[in-house]
Amino acid sequence: MQTFSIAIHGGAGTLVKGMMTPDKEKDYKKALNNSLTKGYKILESGGTAIDAVEIAVRSLEDSHLFNAGKGSVFTADESHEMDASIMDGKTLNAGAVSLITGIRNPITLAKDVMEKSEHVFLAGDGAMQFAKQLNYSLEDETYFYDELRHQQWLEIKDTDNFQLDHSLKKDSKFGTVGAVACDKNGNIAAATSTGGMTNKKFGRVGDSPMIGAGNYANNKTCAVSCTGSGEFFIRGVVAYDVSCLMEYKDMNLEDAANEVINKRILEIGGDGGLIAVDKQGNISMPFNTEGMYRACKSSADKEEVSIYK
Ligand code: ASP
Fold first, then answer.
1. In which element (H, E) is residue 234 found?
2. Binning pLDDT at 50, 70 and 90, where does residue 169 land?
3. What's the CA-to-centroid distance between 112 and ligand 1, angstroms?
4. What pLDDT is attached to residue 77?
5. For the domain that residue 12 is a member of, what is the CATH number?
6. How many angstroms is it from 41 CA to the middle of ligand 1?
7. Residues 6 or more apart whose Cβ sits within 8 Å of residue 243
8. What mean pLDDT comes out for the span 243-248?
9. Please, which of 170, 251, 280, 307 could form a disulfide with 255 given CB 3.0 to 4.6 Å?
10. What domain count does the chain have?
11. Ligand 1: residues within 6 Å at CB?
């Protein structure tokens, strides 16, 4: 019987045990669990992998705990610019948006680009015009505001620094989000959504909306969603690299994902992690940082919600 499964992440980084209060840890686990349950239910009732990853990511975007949708980090001019992408491993259809503002669920706009436009990737004003045409309502800045994110920005705002919402400081929050799933028909999909990096400017775009870099799905190999230092993940074409190792080198999911995260991306200086599934419903969640908010569940009785190594 076909195994169906889902994995999600809420970002990787300097997540050291003991840095967070037990209550906060509980909040994170609850948010991860909510997202996982929503996605898994879709799969259980016979829904598609693409719907499952969208629903799971929407749930994480709606939580202020993660750097996506509500709770996105601040740009250099004290606003929010969000990026998202989604890919269907069955058809290789994909949709992506970047530098969008005011959209509650960027992942749904990315899915609309995939399903309702002739294009794959819409950015900035153009993406906003497309959203307007589809009657998206826009939230004002207060919806996305998060006290801690604002604090992180205030600390570096007058510098040329831009940083992951991964920092060594106590109580730091992390958080690009993503989901990958394999449905009852053995079709797989991947979705990723982010606010990017604190204090980013010049229209900086990371790996998350880039098909092949931060997000990729192909029924032949795997579905992958990444989190980490975007500039390195773009140069390493990380998500596609995992797929290539499986396709051209005949590696299994676990070995391919590990090779990329614990060797190839480290060699060029990238830190982060990824979640991946294949069409047999296998799951892999490697990271080369201290921790990664992550969770997975499969019909083959695998279930996990964790943060640290
Ligand atoms: N990869 C994201 C970016 O560079 C950041 C993250 O994963 O938190 O935009």
1. helix 230-235
2. very low
3. 22
4. 85
5. 3.60.20.30
6. 28
7. 216, 218, 220, 221, 222, 224, 256
8. 98
9. 251
10. 1
11. 11, 67, 164, 175-176, 194, 196-197, 206-208, 214, 227-228, 230, 233
